[in-house]
Design brief:
Strand order of the largest sheet: 8-7-6-10-12
Radius of gyration: 24 Å
CATH class of the largest domain: Alpha Beta
Structural class: alpha/beta
Bound molecules: N-carbamoyl-L-aspartate
Helix content: 25-40%
CATH architecture of the largest domain: 3-Layer(aba) Sandwich
Amino acid sequence: MVTGLVGRDLISINDFTNEEVECLFHLADEMRLALRQGKQLELCRGRDMATLFYEPSTRTRGSFERAMHKLGGNVVSFAEAKTTSSAAKGETIADTVRVLEHYADIIVIRHPWAGAAQVAADYARVPVINAGDGSHEHPTQTLCDLYTLRKEKGRIKGLTVVLWGDLKHGRTVHSLVYALVRFGAQPLCCTEPDLYPPEALVERLRTDYDHVLKKIEPRDLSSLIGRGDTDALYIAPFRPFQLRLPDLGLSVPIGDTTGWSKAKKVDAVYVTRLQRERMRTMDNGQAKYLALNDGFWEEIKRKKRTLIMHPLPRVDELPYQIDTYPRSVYFEQAANGVPIRMALTALLLGAREMEVSKTRKGTLLYEKAENRCKAAFGVECSNQSCVSRQESERRYIVSAFNILKREPLVVSCIYCDSEAYPQYFASSEWHQGTLENKRYYPAHSFMKARIRAENLVLFGSEEEAQRRGFHPSKHVAQGA
Ligand code: NCD
């Protein structure tokens, strides 16, 4: 047993083990009680938190700052870092955090680029917390969600949680899906095909957690009626007001009361808004519209046990009428942000200690060390909003990848976890020091099975391979 989280970063929910999350929840209970009793704590007296927010925020920044104040610490706040910090003059993330580490003991960062928090953590010598990086992850929101879910249901294991909305661009659901699976709950993705979680996430769940993420396409739901846990859902005609958005509206009501009743497994419905700001091209130039219709909400109201969750802010996907339903817990999720972030801050700053096992197996850091490729030349992360694709950051960031899948060869970006598809590869240890032996192979060649991750060199093109002194193997010529 060793002492827990002091000095660590929280970039992905997978950076913490389940045991660490449990310990954090335990401390959050204590903080919650202190808040209820109106106590002002002194645990972080004389310590400073920098909140560096390049994107709008109400809950996350507000609750982090309140948390630090309630712990007796101070806050240096950059609420509109995009325009009010030197980022507006072209300063990089690395430089910004290397300056801020002298002004603060802990940095909380929110950024529109996926992977930005990882870069901040790589360069800052103080703990960095990811408060949302592009469409990648939002681990502290997941801590609030999970904590709320457990408070309401008494457990997480065995729960079925329907995830509805923009599961592709919504970072909260990405962290949440990992956490639900790791804690033994069943996430059920229900959205239209364009908005399913990214393939890299689905693949990681499969390889690392042996979990096949269940998906339901609203358009195909009718064929699923009557089958187990999905029999409660089908597509209904659009609501009249949706005629404003012809062809693009989707309504997924719970129309069949019997079916819904049978679906006893649904413990919570986690609704998310359409992340319009992260959508590059809207279909047909029009915004998509997702809505659960009135029938659904009426049915839910009768359930009395299904929680309605939402990370907030809501737009038009969650009607105000549902606020009075006793199992609507979205404002609870937001309120729990304070004790959760108090516990997290106190632990990372070493103001409170906890005993956890030394083993990091099952965490992202562990997996990354196992699967990191040796080098990559001319291979790009597929996510255009990844920090590794931004001109300013490319001055110092080196793209790097972990193996996601060998057949076909797919790697994932170390910053944002998105996929990348190298065209050629080589081994760093096969050429016995002679240039003639430096051979490269096409991505589909079976030879890659013989190379350990730490020796795998990736290339985006033949030119990249040849520029580095590699020669085509006979597999290149044979196209095999
Ligand atoms: C979320 C976010 O910023 O990703 N908000 C939050 O922190 N609670 C959800 C969203 O913006 O839709």
